[in-house]
Design brief:
Blueprint (H helix, E strand, L loop, with lengths): L2 H11 L6 H5 L4 H10 L1 H4 L9 E5 L10 H9 L3 E3 L14 H15 L3 E6 L1 H12 L4 E7 L13 H8 L7 H8 L6 E5 L19 E5 L12 H11 L28
Parallel strand pairs: 1-2, 1-3, 3-4, 4-5, 5-6
Helix pairs in contact: 6-7, 7-9
Protein name: Alpha/beta hydrolase
Keywords: Hydrolase
Organism: Bradyrhizobium jicamae
Length: about 270
């Protein structure tokens, strides 16, 4: 095989961003939010929290407002939910590292407890990076539509991210490789195959005894953080006792909204 043929084969194997159709269908996020409001009595039947701190990290171009419904829901379930208080997220996995470490340290010191991290999209990439840097302060990591694995350029936001953050996706490959690997804490990736911003293959972690993927049928990227089935899954995962992990039980009230479980690997 010639060099040109090899390059062409590699290009064919690269993941592609979601289609224009899926991207335009992201408008259904409003329906997902309204569904959560209508189903709030059912959502409140989720397992109660033990009061431990939960830090929510917004996605690219989003602010704390985007995760306000989730924080309100988690507070009602008994968690100590925190916003990131850094304004709008203009990206920068490397440039945000120091500020995020300080934030996690502050919450840990104030509460005296390990902190669960819930990150939406780019916020989930931050969460996984934090867990690698400060595992002794992190209880668990839950990501929602986060592009951290495989070909992470396969999103409809890559060029804008690079333009606004000043970082290219290919910068610091050793950091990105670590984020894509196994975490030293329990990890859950919630994703949708109908995500219109992020290619869902980039949200798949390697299943293990302490790591899992949860597919939410027909969810959008923009609506994943307010989707009722996703909210239930987040609450269920956070309710696990510290130091314990069992794979998600899809027999709850939103059972039909989830894809089949994967086989855990040791």
């Amino acid at each position: 095989m010639t060099v040109a043929e090899s390059a062409a084969a590699t290009e064919e194997q690269r993941l592609r961003p979601p289609s224009l159709f899926l991207m335009l269908a992201e408008t259904r996020a409003l329906f997902e939010l309204n569904s959560s409001l209508l189903l709030s009595p059912l959502l409140m039947r989720a397992p109660r929290g033990d009061g431990h701190p939960v830090l929510t990290l917004p996605g690219f171009l989003a602010s704390d407002l985007s995760m306000a419904p989730m924080r309100r829901y988690l507070k009602e379930l008994g968690y100590d939910a925190y916003a990131w208080n850094m304004g709008r997220n203009f990206g920068g996995v490397v440039s945000k590292r120091s500020a995020l470490r300080e934030l996690l340290q502050r919450i840990h010191d104030q509460t005296g407890r390990k902190v669960s991290l819930v990150g939406w999209s780019l916020g989930g990439v931050y969460a996984r990076d934090l867990a690698l840097q400060m595992p002794e302060m992190v209880r668990s990591v839950i990501t929602l539509g986060s592009p951290f694995a495989n070909d992470i350029r396969a999103t409809n936001a890559t060029r804008l991210y690079e333009a606004l953050s000043g970082e290219t996706v290919d910068d610091n490959p050793e950091i990105l490789q670590a984020i894509a690997g196994d975490l030293p804490v329990p990890a859950t990736s919630i994703y949708s195959r109908t995500d219109g911003i992020v290619n869902w293959h980039t949200s798949l972690l390697r299943p293990s005894v302490s790591a899992e993927n949860i597919e939410v049928y027909f969810a959008s990227h923009i609506g994943l953080g307010v989707n009722p089935a996703a909210l239930w899954a987040v609450a269920d995962r956070l309710a696990q006792a510290e130091g314990e992990f069992k794979h998600f039980d899809r027999s709850g009230p939103f059972a039909i909204a989830y894809g089949p479980p994967e086989n855990a690997q040791s």
